[in-house]
């Protein structure tokens, strides 16, 4: 069922970015540059969190989850809800999930974590589709 593999935590990179901001090495314009597409994804497909935006501290950040993997075909690069991932983890051999936190107030955005999901049998679905 739900087992995350090869988890990469981007907390360090995020803290470094925020430290650069507080020291004045970068400005909020540099960091709060969410692409309009990402902001739209956050609004329509994002999942609310309880965590305050580290930059403007006025709104809570939204998580937007993307999936990538050679098995996914046309689903690759799509935004998914956590509930859909559970289903996909049973269906596909391996795919990587990227979770981006987005503030819809100031457009702060940063990769939070990425991990691999799937049955662990690469190409499983492809083989079945080919009838082997
Ligand atoms: Zn913000």
TrEMBL record:
UniProt cross-references to Pfam families, sorted A to Z: DUF5318 (PF17249)
Entries under InterPro entries matching the protein: DUF5318
Name of this protein: DUF5318 domain-containing protein
Organism this protein belongs to: Bailinhaonella thermotolerans
């Amino acid at each position: 069922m739900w087992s995350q593999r090869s988890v990469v935590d981007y907390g360090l990179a995020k803290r470094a970015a925020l430290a650069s901001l507080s020291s004045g090495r970068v400005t909020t314009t540099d960091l709060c540059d969410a692409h309009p597409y990402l902001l739209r994804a956050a609004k329509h497909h994002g999942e609310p969190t309880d965590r305050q935006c580290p930059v403007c501290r006025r709104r809570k950040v939204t998580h937007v989850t993307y999936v990538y993997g050679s098995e996914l075909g046309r689903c690759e690069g799509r935004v998914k809800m956590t509930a859909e991932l559970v289903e996909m983890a049973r269906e596909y051999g391996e795919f990587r999930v990227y979770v981006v936190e987005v503030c819809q107030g100031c457009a702060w955005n940063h990769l939070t974590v990425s991990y691999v999901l799937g049955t662990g049998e690469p190409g499983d679905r492809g083989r079945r589709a080919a009838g082997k």
